[in-house]
Amino acid sequence: MQIIRQRDLVETPWKNGGGITRNIAEERDDHGALWRLSMADVDGDGAFSSFPGLTRILTVIKGDGMMLHGPDGMMPARYAAPVRFDGAAPVTATLSQGPIRDFNLMFDTARCEGDAQVVRDPGAHEVGQPGQTCMLHVIAGAAAVAGAELGVGDTAISRATPLRFDLAQDAVALTITLHPKG
Fold it and tell me: Which domain range does residue 70 map to?
């Protein structure tokens, strides 16, 4: 089990130079990125960086949201509502009512499959299956994982085994599962 604290994340410029991101975790091999988790602060309207070969699942974790404009039309990105789209697609964003923070899962669809779900029910939960990489990211409130208390912005990663956690009353979290194809 790996616990990643928000306070330990390092800010880096976006690939397109338009803002700041905080990389949470990633898995790479000889073929490049298999998957990556990050958080980004979006302070204004603008274009997304292009990530050919990757699928993105974006979730607004702070703020009112934004409208994404892409080749398939408009997609609303609202608080705690994951939106999936092609990482290579030319996508621009228009903020709804001020700055937001988003959580990004990006993965190589040719080699793995990923999913993100929002959990709001307090109590004990289990996510994933044996052989999957399973993650928990706290959006609001707190959660407990393997004896560790996670606060807002903290992430837990379990590789190859299901992830068990307790969600506090009024907490909101994202669960992420990744598994290899084939």
Answer: 9-108
